[in-house]
Amino acid sequence: MIDTQDMKTKCGFVALIGAPNAGKSTLVNKIVGTKVSIVTHKVQTTRSLIRGIALKGDDQVIFVDTPGIFAPKRRLDRAMVNTAWGGAKDADLVAVLVDARKGVTEQVERILEGVNDIKMPKVLILNKIDLVKRDSLLALAAKVNEIAGFDQTFMVSALNGDHTDDILDYFSDQMPKGPWLYPEDMISDLPMRQLAAEITREKVFLRLHEELPYASTVETEKWEQKPDGSVRIEQVIYVERDSQKMIVLGKNGRSIKAISMAAREELSELVEAKVHLFLFVKVRERWVDDPERYREMGLEFPI
C-alpha cells in the first residue's frame, strides 16, 4: 500500500453529470485546454465516459464527462444512463451541471433527486450564465440547493471560459493526496482510434443534424502509419436502414465528402501529420441490439 502522507502530489476524479446539452463536454474541453469530447447540438452526443486530464500545480484532476441523463426509452439510452450514474458513483467528487437558461426542468429535478443518494462531496455548476440575468441566477441557485444540498455553487460560461479557472482551483484543492495516474502530457485516456471515430461522428451530426436519426455510430477499422509519416485511416459509419445510408451519402456523394473533409482536417491536427481518410457507410440493422457495438463504444450491454 502506498503511503500518501508526505506526498506533494494529488490526484482524483470529478464526475460531471447533468441533462443532455447542459454543456458538460464543452466545460471539459475548456478546462483541459483542447478537445477531448465531441460537441454537437444533437442531444445525447456523448455516449460513454470520456476522461479529460487537467493539471494544476502538483495536482492532477481527471474530469469524467458522462452521457446526459434522461428518461431512457431504448436499450442504447439505458446503457448511457447506467454509465452516467456509474461514473458518478466511482468518482471522488460529483459536479452537477445545470443549464441556467432552462432552469429546473422535470429532467433536472429527477437528476437532483438521484444525486441526493450519492454520499460524496457534491458541487453545483450553473452553466451558460452569460445568457441569464444575475437575479435569476441567484434564485435558481437557491432553488437547486433546496432540492439537493451542495458543498459549493459555481456560475460559469463553459463556452466563453468565464470562471472556469475557479472550478479547476477548487477541484484541485479537493483531490486526495496520491501519485498521478497519467503522464504529464496526456490529456485523455481515450484510445486514438476511438477518438478519431468520435471526431468523425461529430462531423456526421454537425452536417446532417435533424436529417439523420440518432441511431448511427462510427468505428475505426484500420489505422496505418505510412513510411512518409502520413496516416491512413479507414472508418465505417453504421446506420440501421438503406434510407439512412442515402442521407449520409447525400446527393452525388456531397454529404459524405463534406463529412470526410471536415474530419480529415481535424484528424490531421490531432495526429500532427497528413491523414488519408476513407469513410464507408454500411447498413447494420438493429445494431443497437448488438453487444459487440456496445463494447466498441465503451458501454456495458444492458440486458
TrEMBL record:
GO molecular function: GTP binding; GTPase activity; ribosomal small subunit binding; small ribosomal subunit rRNA binding
Region called G2, residue ranges: 44-48
Location(s) in or outside the cell: Cytoplasm; Cell membrane
GO biological process: ribosomal small subunit assembly
Region G1, annotated ranges: 18-25
Region (G5): 156-158
Pfam families on file: KH_2, MMR_HSR1
KH type-2 domain: residues covered: 208-285
Domain Era-type G stretches: 10-177
Main location: cytoplasm
InterPro entries, A to Z: G_ERA_dom (IPR030388), GTP-bd (IPR006073), GTPase_Era-like (IPR005662), KH_dom-like_a/b (IPR015946), KH_dom_type_2 (IPR004044), KH_sf_prok-type (IPR009019), P-loop_NTPase (IPR027417), Small_GTP-bd (IPR005225)
Domain of life (superkingdom): Bacteria
Binding-site list for GTP: 18-25, 65-69, 127-130
Record's bilayer topology term: Peripheral membrane protein
Keyword list, A-Z: Cell inner membrane, Cell membrane, Cytoplasm, GTP-binding, Membrane, Nucleotide-binding, Ribosome biogenesis, RNA-binding, rRNA-binding
One GO cellular component term noted in the UniProt record for this chain: cytosol
Family to which this protein belongs: Belongs to the TRAFAC class TrmE-Era-EngA-EngB-Septin-like GTPase superfamily. Era GTPase family.
Subunit structure comment from the entry: Monomer.
General function of this protein: An essential GTPase that binds both GDP and GTP, with rapid nucleotide exchange. Plays a role in 16S rRNA processing and 30S ribosomal subunit biogenesis and possibly also in cell cycle regulation and energy metabolism.
Protein name as it appears in the record: GTPase Era
Organism annotation: Cohaesibacter gelatinilyticus
Lineage per the UniProt record: Bacteria, Pseudomonadati, Pseudomonadota, Alphaproteobacteria, Hyphomicrobiales
